[in-house]
Amino acid sequence: MKRRGAALGLLVFLAVWLGLNALFVGFSARTAVERAREEVNSNGFALHRVISQRVAQHDALLTSLVALVLVADPPPQDAILQVSHRFMRFYPRVAGIDVVSLAESGGTVSLRPLMSMAPVPVDHAGLAAALYALTPGEPRSFRDPPAPTHYLVGKKASAANPALAVIIEIDATLLVEPSERPAWAHVTLTLDGQPLAQWQAEQEGDALPWLPAPRFSRAIDSPSQPLTLTLVRPLSLAEILDPKLTLGFAALSLLALLVLHYAWRQRLAARRSEEAARLAEQRTQLLEHETRLAHAARVNALGELASGIAHELTQPLTALLSQSQAARRLARPGSDPSLLDQALEANVREARRAGEMLKRMRDYISNRPPRPVLTEVAEIVDDVAGLVRADLERRGIALELDSDAPGAHILADPIEMEQVLHNLIRNAADSLDGTAGEKTITVRTTAMPAAAGADGRVEIRVSDTGPGIPADVRLRLFEPFFTTKPDGLGLGLSLCATLLERCGGSIAADAAPSGGAAFILTLPEAGAARQAAQ
Amino acid sequence: MTPVRIYLVDDDQPVREAIALLLGTYGMSVETFADPATFLAHVDRARPGCLILDLRMPMISGLQLQQKLVERGIDWPVIMITGHGDVNACRRAFKAGVLDFLSKPVDEQVLLDAIAMAGKALEQVLERAEAQDLLGRLTEREREVLDMVCRGWASKEIAAALNVSARTIDAHRAHIAEKLGTSSVAEFVRLTLADPAAASR
After folding, report:
1. Do B168 and B112 share a domain, yes or no?
2. Which of A19, A182, A205, A443 could form an SS bridge with A236, CB 3.0 to 4.6 Å?
3. CB-CB neighbors (< 8 A) of B111 in chain A
4. Mind listing the UniProt keywords for this protein, alphabetically (chain A) (predicted)?
5. DSSP per residue, A394-460
6. How far is B170 from chain A (nearest CA, A)?
């Protein structure tokens, strides 16, 4: 039971600790993801702004080139080349600049490069027609199949046929400079849904597949170049969970929990010891109370006993007085000296007898602590029988003593045992008072020798021929303050039980074969102690 | 005073022995009994004596014993001794006709006084028994004549009252003197007074 409790306690402790750590992990992961999302967003916006600016520059280049193309006919090649050259030097992402002529005849558009700073690959199908279809002054982007990372931006200069157009080729991978690009993100630039440039994040550890990665995706603000910038930040376990912090928290929480647990245990122990102290206090009070009650009961019983003792005591005193007075007369000259001797002898005997009685009475009423000594059971029974016999005879009750345990000894306070026996006999006598017919109280002593696993015991059985004890009463007999006598305190039998328990014995109620009541005292036989004492 | 015969009934042997010894030193003969039943079996009307009874004894108490004796017509004086100065027991004892009620331990002098009183009481009892016995021998007519003699009437007066001759009365008186063993009028008076039957007359 105790071990199971301890195991349960350990489980609860572990569960609390794990729960705490799970909460901490969840919280710190959430915070990390939130932080990553903010980072992605702020970096995304910054990059978006830069790219938008750069894309706008392309528009500006186109506008200025178209303006130059339209200055004269034929266009001023030197100026155009110069501007182009300049531009390409400043902006390495511009991979090529072409001025082309578009002629339409019979539904097909032919394209002829006029001048080129760096030739733009314009020979792929559809480009000429698409350029020709443009509204003059409105630039538009095209994919450049031979170079997947490049795109073209074209602008038609006029609506005439043939028309002039300017095309620039942009290297999308250079739209973003390495220093501007966060290393931790996958960055993608797409045009018309097709990826133009992609940069992989420099990642430590695997991304968590189940964790939605923070993502930034926004179209670049340019009608001519509808690029879309996407930043995705894959998160690895190490990024959302700081192992040091997690381990630190685990250790710290474990420590804190241990301290708490210890404090709780201490408090529990303190409360328990407080409780134990309170119980002990209660028990002490109860014991004191019992001792007082025992004393009270003894004094009470003394009242009943007094008449018996007085009767007994007057006998030796009567004999003493008469013998002494006779002796005084016999001491006169001429009297029979042998009679004098006899009288004095009787006096000594009677004085001793009276003294014995007084001693017994003193022992009985004094509130002294129990003194367990090796006592012969027969002596106790005989003493009590001597005390009660006169009273019983007066009431017409026969007292029968019966023993098959001569010389049986117990380790008990003889006075207390006498008190118990006296109590039982008194109860039996009370129950016999109202009855007709045979009135007998039997005290039977039986030895129960030591058997395997059981020590030797002595049984003293006090039975009467009275009306017996009803079953419902028998159950409550040994309860304190339970009584069936109109003027009883209800302490006698409870006291008996206490006194017997004190010396390792027990008391039980039974029915006598005659139908009367029987009380059985069982006491440990002190045979071993007696042998040791000898 | 003639030595009185004493019967002592007490269940305690040392007490019996002590009292017997003490009274023995006064020359009294004490017969002791351990219980009332033995005494009842032993008691002899022809050997009267004073009774010293313990009030509290097994089976039959001193008072019950006294009652049993009275039932048998033995009304010898009883001195009750007891270990208890119980007022109720004392009252009942006196009501029952106990002569004295002494509490144990009994002092020598108190006991001797009680015994002396009992001795006198026993004499009276015996006298009464004797008177009863003597008067019981008279015929009714003789008893009638005796009563008148005791009132101090002369023979003539008695003869007139009974309407018989004076000679007849004289003959009655001679018979009476013969039966009672005396012709003294004073003796006649003593005898009739001792008779409990006369007291009611």
Report:
1. no
2. A205
3. 322
4. Kinase, Phosphoprotein, Transferase
5. HTT-EEEEEES-TT-EEEE-HHHHHHHHHHHHHHHHHHHHT--S--EEEEEEEEE--BTTB--EEEE
6. 59
Tens of pLDDT along A300-332? Answer: 666 666 666 676 788 888 889 999 999 998 888
Q: What is the mean pLDDT of residues A396-402?
A: 89
Nearest-by-Cβ selection for A311 from B22, B83, B108: B83
Query: Regarding the domain with residue range A371-534, which homologous superfamily does it belong to in the CATH classification?
Result: Histidine kinase-like ATPase, C-terminal domain (3.30.565.10)
* Whole-number Å distance between alpha carbons of A443 and A57: 128
Confidence at residue A534, expressed as pLDDT on a 0 to 100 scale:
46
Indicate the class that CATH gives domain A2-200+211-235.
Answer: alpha beta
Facing residue for B25 by CB, picked from A326, A349, A394? A326
Domain end call among B127, B151, B184: B127
Please say if the pLDDT value at position A228 is more than 80: yes
Domain extent, residue B63, equals 5-127
The beta-carbon neighbor of A310 closest among B17, B61, B83 is B83
Tell me, yes or no, whether B185 and B117 share the same domain.
no
What residues of B are in contact with residue A390 (Cβ under 8 Å)?
56
Q: Which of A17-21, A390-394, B45-49, B197-201 has the lowest mean pLDDT?
A: B197-201
Interface test with A, best of B9, B11, B19, B25 (most A CBs within 10 A): B25
Domain boundary (B77, B96, B127) is at B127
Quote the CA–CA distance of A272 and A262 in Å, as a whole number: 15
Tell whether B143 and B176 lie within a shared domain. Answer: yes
- State the pLDDT confidence band at A442, using cuts at 50, 70 and 90: very high
What is the C-alpha separation between B18 and B48, in angstroms, rounded? 22
Domain boundaries, chain A: 2-200+211-235, 371-534
